[in-house]
User: Fold this.
Amino acid sequence: MNDALLAQGVPLVLGDVTGQIDTAWQGTIAAFAKNGVPQSKGRCAGVFPFTPTDPGWLYALAPAERPPAVTAQVPSPPQAQSGAWQFSPAPEVYGAAVEHAVEQLRSYETPLQKVVLARALDYRTAAPVDPMAVARRLGQDPHVTSYALPVPQIRSGKTADAQGDMRWLVGATPELLLDKKGAAVMSHPLAGSAPRSADPVEDRHRAEALLVSTKDLAEHRYVVEYIHDILAPYCHNLTRPQTPALQKTASMWHLGTRISGVLRDADLPCLALLGKLHPTPAVAGTPLRPALDLISRLEPEPRGFYAGTVGWLENERDGTWYVTLRCAMIEGCMARLHAGAGIVPDSTAAAEIAETQAKFIAMSDALGIDLTH
Ligand SMILES: C=C(O[C@H]1C=CC=C(C(=O)O)[C@@H]1O)C(=O)O
Assistant:
């Protein structure tokens, strides 16, 4: 763990948690869970990548007497940007990967039931992107938790500061992975999606169709069962509704199920439980191992922090962690956005291309990218 790679005073924002970084530590969820969080009193914010064996960051926040880094300002409307953007890979290549996955899923020889395949959108503009301004715009949607966290680049041990060598993970997630307060635990997985429509009648029609879509209900069920099975041994009471409910963001409908329980041991460290849960079939697939293998074969580049987990800890015991979705890694004048979709035997390339395109909209709108051109 290294606390010299990030200059003090760099701001971050994560829902209601805003502040300036005092100390940064690098490590995996498992390492922090095993060795403890160095400054375990008080609040830490953090971010971990999709691959659980890759390190992420935990940040101790400076004492609250300091002025908050992000004041409640009226968000400025996104500037129409003159930047260039391109999908990576091209939609046809992503479509071919979906078709390949569907073939695998339909084969009698595979244990695989679902795999989540993601694609990226690369954006380059003339002026540096302000991550805090993007987070404020994203935060206008009351159904998501917006975030902007620095993710230092480690270049020959040099300290990164807000102006220099810094990448920012910025996004607006609708998905709660784990909330732990003493003995009370909750997870609210999402899976199964439909794009919103500006026409209220069509919007309602899409929502109702999603609620009865066998393909989306199957995608959803895998995630709920997985999370339920992980939490069950730790809980003496774990409940969930039998059927999912609709959850919305400004641009998407999702199926969601709230799973709540009471832990046998209220003192269980939050990261110990988080390490068991991440990554779920909402971002990987099921069973986990073959899904991860197929993702590494079909996705051209590692996901990095997309589909990881972002959240905060209150001392070591409690915390709130989200799935790192609807996000971009911003570095100077460049941003890389990611979006993924759950692939099951009934999936089609065209529908999954459309779904991932719709999932880009939250971030592309906040960045001022016009995806219609
Ligand atoms: C993987 C993503 O979404 C997940 C969360 C909600 C719905 C999903 C779906 O319908 O596939 C995904 O599981 C993403 O937004 O990149």
